[in-house]
Amino acid sequence: MKAHPFSILATAAVLSIAGCSSMHGMMHSAGSQHVMLAGANEVPPNQSSASGSGTVTINSDRSVSADITVEGMNATAAHIHEAGQGKNGKVIVPLTKVGDNHFTAPAGAKLSEEQYEAYKAGNLYVNVHSKDHPGGEIRAQLAAR
Hints:
This protein is α+β, with helices and mostly antiparallel strands. The chain is 23% helix and 38% strand. The protein contains 2 helices and 9 strands. It has helices at residues 5-29, 113-120; strands at residues 32-38, 51-58, 64-71, 75-82, 90-94, 96-99, 102-104, 124-130, 138-142. The strands form 2 sheets. A 5-stranded antiparallel sheet has the order 1-2-3-7-6, with no helix packed on it. The longest helix is centred in the N-terminal third of the chain and has 25 residues, at 5-29. The N and C termini lie far apart (50 Å).
């Protein structure tokens, strides 16, 4: 019995899409983490009632994506910094403000080898700044998985 050419093409298309979907998940979920930002995590800690949440993904090729939303504050800037918990550090990935309370990593953002090693050691964090707290109002430490 001969298979109809359309059914062969349909099967190939489904398998191809499934394979791409699996590859996409492998490439992007390995270093993806949900973050919850709070003033208590800042250095020094503050009593801000603002909060933030989102996803930061750092892949094994060192590419970075982030999508952070905040509320309860007038956000002026957001960054990924290099420093361990309880310490402040230099900006390594400035995030782009795409709305009043929404920040994303710029296209093509990538860590250096040294920054990627710092990430794997738990020495990166994301924070959001405001006029009231120019050094950072809310923060979340990033942890490699």
